[in-house]
Design a protein that fits this description.
The chain has 173 residues and is of the alpha/beta class. The chain has a domain of 121 residues: Rhodanese-like domain (Oxidized Rhodanese, domain 1, 3-Layer(aba) Sandwich), CATH 3.40.250.10. The chain has seven helices and five strands, in the order ααβαβαβαβαβα. A five-stranded parallel sheet has the order 1-5-4-2-3, covered by helices on one side. Helix 6 links the parallel strand 4 and strand 5. Helix 2 packs parallel to helix 6. The chain is globular and about 50 Å long. The termini are far apart.
């Protein structure tokens, strides 16, 4: 019986290989290269910023259990935050390019002191910062700046509002 199953699987595999166009394998491999590039980019940003990461289901659990935290949406107010955001999130704009020095022109005219006021005086409180999606680096800038200001419990939520909505979790407008 085992030999028959093995033979059947072999025939199935060969059939799939013959009937599957070569371009579909290439596309699969090209997609993997893009996935790897995104994953490594995210990892390197996290390493540079010195913050943690939180997944969609973890953030939802934290909200559901009433964890004390500040959630910051780093997307533009009119274009994104006003339309939808994670429940309880506050808006604070950060730019997409890496922001090594504070530039109020990039943060809707707000100062580093304004950001610190939003985050609060408890440097050990959980801070969760997100933007639209994994490739968006606004959240990296926000999380890195929270760490620079001395906050110790900083998390980047890389999936952002797209992952939140994709998980069919409630949004606020």
């Amino acid at each position: 019986m085992l030999k028959k199953c093995g033979l059947l699987m072999g025939v199935l595999c060969v059939t799939l290989m013959i009937s599957t166009p070569a371009w579909s394998f290439d596309n699969k491999f090209e997609k993997e290269v893009k996935m790897e590039t995104s994953a490594v980019k995210l990892l390197r940003e996290v390493q540079r910023g010195g913050y943690g990461v939180v997944k969609t289901d973890e953030l939802k659990a934290w909200i559901d259990e009433g964890k004390e935290m500040v959630i910051v949406d780093t997307m533009p107010f009119e274009a994104s935050y006003k339309k939808m955001h994670v429940p309880g999130a506050e808006q604070f704009l950060f730019p997409i390019p890496e922001m090594g020095t504070w530039d109020a022109k990039e943060t809707d005219g707000k100062s580093v002191e304004d950001f610190e006021t939003l985050l609060g005086s408890d440097k050990n409180k959980a801070i969760v910062i997100y933007c639209g999606f994994v490739k968006c680096t606004r959240s990296h800038n926000g999380a890195a700046w929270a760490k620079k200001l001395g906050y110790t419990n900083v998390y980047r939520y890389p999936g952002g509002i797209f992952a939140w909505k994709g998980a069919d979790y409630p949004i606020e407008k």
